[in-house]
Amino acid sequence: MSGAADFIMEHSAGGLLSWQHQLEASERFGLSLAEVEGVILDKGLLPGRYQRNRQTISQADQRELFRSRVTVIGCGGLGCYVVEELARLGVGQIVVVDPDTFEEHNLNRQLYSTPEKLGEVKVLAALQRVAEVNPAVTVIPYQKAFSAENGKGLLAGSRVAVDALDNIGVRMELAEICNMMGLPLVHGAIAGWFGHVTTLFPGDDTLQNIYGPQKASKGVEASLGNPSFTPALVAALQVAEVCKLLLGQGKTLKNRTLMIDLLNMEFQELEL
Q1: How much is the pLDDT for 212?
Q2: Considering the domain boundaries, does residue 61 fall inside one?
């Protein structure tokens, strides 16, 4: 890739390489856009799309994000927003797990659902969307339900897992498998005007403290539903937690839960 590296260095300006030159490098040297992005970051530069990141996320941090893999379990109200924000952030590999197709009741809140996509596979819609907004990011879609039997395989190679599920029993299975694999898990839940976010590290029993012994399939969202704004907010908080975990920065929501009440615009932190 020495020719590509020379081209990139020659055409960079102010520590950035434009999208136009990324495309040209890809075509000229027969490299994928992900490979081109890797060369840019290895050379201490930034793809131009991340120039507004660098006041907050350093060039070395951006490279770390690109070298990371995150698994998102669920591609519905929360999951679509989580995938979108991870891709725009520059996380290099995103595994997306969901068995479902879009239905009409998804249209009020699920980012990738449109009338034209009704009946389409959710994880394939995520794949298509990321290819449009950041084609240097690799999406690995699995149209299947997460379970105790397939969980380790779906999480293999990831540095962080994201819980974007709507099923308490499966959430518990996900937490148990992450614990066994030594993998941090960012949990988010939504219902109506309300939501909460927490981060579990191996050995934590946070979800048991939140949900108790119940094994009900659905939480309170089954009765309250979800408007458009709750999943967008909670997903953004989850992605912020993922970013901190990947970069080893800031204070995460370990052993504490951020409770969100948008009806009264109140945020409360509970220690667990």
Answers
A1: 81
A2: no
- pLDDT higher than 90, residue 272: no
Contacts of 200 (CB under 8 A, 6+ apart): 175, 178, 179, 184, 185, 186, 187, 206, 207, 254
pLDDT band at 2 (very low <50, low <70, confident <90, very high): confident
Q: Which domain holds residue 29?
A: 2-56
Cα separation of the two ends of the chain: 50
Residue 255 and residue 210 in contact, taking contact as beta carbons nearer than 8 Å: no
pTM beyond 0.85: yes
The contacts of residue 252 (CB under 8 Å, 6+ apart) are 199, 241, 244, 245
Residue 2 dihedral angles phi and psi, to the nearest 5°: -65, -35
Long-range contact set of residues 29-36: C-beta below 8 Å, sequence gap at least 24: 29/1, 29/3, 29/4, 31/1, 31/4, 33/135, 33/136, 34/92, 34/136, 34/137, 34/138, 35/1, 36/4, 36/8, 36/136
230 plus 143 within the same structural domain: yes
**Interval 160-181 mean pLDDT:** 96
If asked whether residues 72 and 45 sit together in one domain, one would say no
Same domain (yes/no): 90, 209? yes
Q: In this structure, are 74 and 52 located in the same domain? A: no
Are both 105 and 235 inside the same structural domain? Answer: yes
- Same-domain check for residues 88 and 112: yes
For range 173-196, the mean pLDDT: 97
User: Would the pLDDT of 223 be above 90?
Assistant: no
Query: Cβ neighbours of residue 214 under 8 Å, at least 6 residues apart?
Result: 168
Q: Is 62 contained in some domain?
A: no
